Amino acid sequence: MATTLSPKATDKYFTFQFALLCVSNFLFSGSFSMMLPELPGYLTKLGGADYKGFIIALFTLMAGISRPFSGKLTDTVGRVPVMIFGSLVCVVCSLLYPLLTTVAGFLFLRFLHGFSTGFKPTATSAYGADVVHESRRGEALGALSVGYTVGMSLGPVIGSYLVNHFSYNTMFYVSAAFALGSVIILNNIKETLANPQKFSIELIKIQRHEVFEKTSVKPALIMLLLAFSSGCTLTIVPDLSDWVGLQNRGIFFATYTASSLLIRLLANKSSDKHGRVIVLIFSSLALAISMMFLSFVHTPVMFLISAAIFGLSWGMNGPTLTAWTVDLCAPENRGRAVASMYIALEAGIGIGAFISAKIYDNKSSNFIYAFITPAILALVSAMLLFIWRRKKIQAAK
User: Fold this and answer.
1) Any residues with CB less than 8 A from the CB of 262 and at least 6 apart, and which?
2) Which letter, b or e, does each residue of 150-176 get, where b requires 16 or more Cβ atoms within 10 Å of its Cβ?
3) What is the pTM of this model?
4) Rounded to the nearest 5 degrees, what angle is found at the Cα of 86, between the Cα atoms of 70 and 214?
5) Is the pLDDT of residue 171 over 90?
6) How many other C-beta atoms lie within 10 A of the C-beta of residue 262?
7) Are 286 and 374 spatial neighbours (Cβ–Cβ below 8 Å)?
């Protein structure tokens, strides 16, 4: 069994290699996120307005399907090769969007594009856990996500600018260039998995027990409930942006990711100090509040306040859930454990995208119902976390 390198509590994790990985994350997330606010309009232009829910659902379906494979390969072949593969998928798909200009071709590419987030984030999180002592795990994973968050913040704004001033194809080509930059950087990053194996067909044969890491059940359940909101916002917010009078559909995504970045910089050590579960309780409540705001939004100011609260929530949810997942698993199963948690992420986003699109049905009067649903699920998440925490305290007494 391959093993990981073991850092000491006094080791510094923010090295030049770590900084390179952050830049790679920025380019990778910028590559696919710049498309998000514009794809609903692009699909409508192709004649597929009724298929908006599939834009995110197909993407996340493939990401979820690929997670068991990326988790196993991360723990056997290595973190870096898996990250490179994920970024290469973005390069290829971005270059193919201008060529496949039918609704069926577009939906096929969205499905294929899901391989990217099915692979790169899994290996990236495992890499981050490898290079830091457990006492600083939440801090390190929060720092590692900063590059990703900046990309998610700037990407949508860049994408909308390119479409408004140039064309959809220009956006696709710039997206490919971003992803290619990520690949180039990853080629210069050192592997953290000790004694990685050579790739073979046998390694992609998944046994039943390798599909889901059982230690990840609780973090995965919370992720499933919370991720519904992401699927909802990715699908419906571009139309809500038009409805409140904001021409640049990327403003919501830029606002929430900037807010997410701010909270990570200010409170990236909070889950290490106070515990994963208590942080998740407060972040789940913040998510519920943001969804309630969106359900009643009717002005640009309310819209942006909702985006900021949404960002505060996910700025804490993401790194904390990842750290909690790694806390619960054995070191040799980090890739599989993180992949299992991300399966729940993709499932939540995909289900949220599909159901919210059905509820919305291209009618502005249905915005309230589409956003109240993820608000309720976030409250359920907070309730479960509270119950688990109380039981743990009682057991300790």
Assistant:
1) 311, 312, 315
2) bbbbbbbbbbbbbbeeeebeebbbbbb
3) 0.71
4) 25
5) yes
6) 15
7) no
Q: What is the pLDDT of residue 180?
A: 96
Residue 11, C-beta contacts closer than 8 angstroms, at least 6 positions apart = 131, 132, 133
> pLDDT tens digits for 41-50?
899 899 988 8
- CA neighbor of 23 nearest in space, from 83, 109, 92: 83
Q: Is 397 exposed, middle or buried (0-12, 13-18, 19+ CB in 10 A)?
A: exposed
What is the distance between the alpha carbons of residues 120 and 186, in angstroms, rounded to a whole number? 11
Cα 322 to Cα 325: distance, rounded to the nearest angstrom: 5
Per-residue pLDDT tens for 209-222? Answer: 666 778 889 999 99
Q: What domains lie within the chain, and their CATH numbers?
A: 15-197+214-396 (1.20.1250.20)
**Spatial separation of the C-alpha atoms in residues 384 and 180, rounded to whole Å:** 42
24's tokens:
């790679």
pLDDT of residue 248 exceeding 90, the answer is: no
